[in-house]
Amino acid sequence: MGKSAIVIGSGIAGMASAIRLAKKGHIVSVFEANNYPGGKLTEIKLGNYRFDAGPSLFTLPEQVEELFDISGLDVSQYFEYHKLETTCEYFYPDGTKFTAWSDREKLLEEFKNKFQEPEKGIESALDKSKFLYDNLAPVFMHKSLHKMSTWLGGEALKTYLKMPKFDFDRTMNQVNEKRFKNPKTVQLFNRYATYNGSDPYQTPGTLNIIPHLEFGRGAYFPIKGMYDITNSIYKLAKIIGVKFYFNTPVKSIVVYEGKAKGINTAMGFHKSDRVVSNMDMVGTYKKLLKDQYQPKKLLSQPKSSSALIFYWGIKKKFEQLDLHNIFFSENYKKEFEHIFKSGDIYQDPTVYVNITSTQKPDDAPEGCQNWFTMINVPNNQGQDWDKLIAEARQNILDKLSKMLGADIASLIEVEDVLDPRTIESRTSSVAGSLYGNSSNNKFAAFLRHPNFSSKIKNLYFCGGSVHPGGGIPLSLLSAKIMAEQIS
Question: Cα(313)–Cα(372) distance, rounded to whole angstroms?
Fold first, then answer.
């Protein structure tokens, strides 16, 4: 009989960890506090509308495909997706509309025609983003930064020689302001800092690696919506024998003589040879390992931003809204200063709004649209959220009504809201932060918790709050890195 493993939490990293451990011969059980899998990557149904509740864009699909490959199954029989011709539609307060084409030549032409941005500058930015990805991803995304073998390997040696070119000492905004002529272009490229909950005015220019995931590697969308990523991985895990226990919160991780021995739930003690926590790293220590060593420096790091999301069923189809739409604010810098410095919501009606409508026929009645309407907000620091939500809702409606030429409030048929408080209660993300510790300094990659415990044997970690970071591809890679620590 193989060794046993328990995974705490059924987010995509937890399920990917379960699959990888099962393929290594472990008998795997997943314990989940909610009555559904997926963590943040779930769905909401309201009347005749269906909404993807979490991430709205899909990159590096090979990370999902690999789970099926190692399981000996044809991914196309279980999960389908397509590449997007446009990654996003951008709307500016002055009426400018910009289409981010996936085709490089069309994208260059769009920058030239809409922003009078020379092709040379855009090409240089895209090439630099690719350079950062090609040289940093093999080490920082695909390997543990907490093993000496990583830093002595050939990939790391190549990286050392190019360190001065990685923009660690300039902020993302400083790099982009120097590179581009039009403030609209700066704003567009600065937006990618939000992909891991960061502030472009504080986070290092190294984060300009992110645009390559869309413009270079490609942006994709599952045929059945983003929730199908969760659904497909969950089905795969069950096919290969992983057992799931829903509505079963874990009370503690049992440690004896320096080794993880299992977990305690309301049903009692569950023995296991290995324990993997997909729970937020801070919550894992403060709730499940209360009597064990606490890495105080890591636990006290500032947390990333959160989100305020309105799920609106709209009784009209706006043809100008594609899958993914960004309505920019006029004063982007001021908005981010509020989010990261004051801990408040920027109350100007020109707030930056992200609308995603899946456009699937069965996600909304005919002639209607399902809107995932999100703004960036600070994590929960005890703000008066009920008041802030009401004000933000009105500001968003005012902005969208003006820009789309329609009374949006009168078109809302169904509505639900997700805020930092509910994000924390549903996903155990401390303070509702979406990406764990903040990445607003150049050492952020080195400050994330490793995918294993250096103090407790047989205890491992995965998910967006540990290395290599948050978001779908990095969370899946965290599971891969974790599994590589186990023979």
Answer: 9
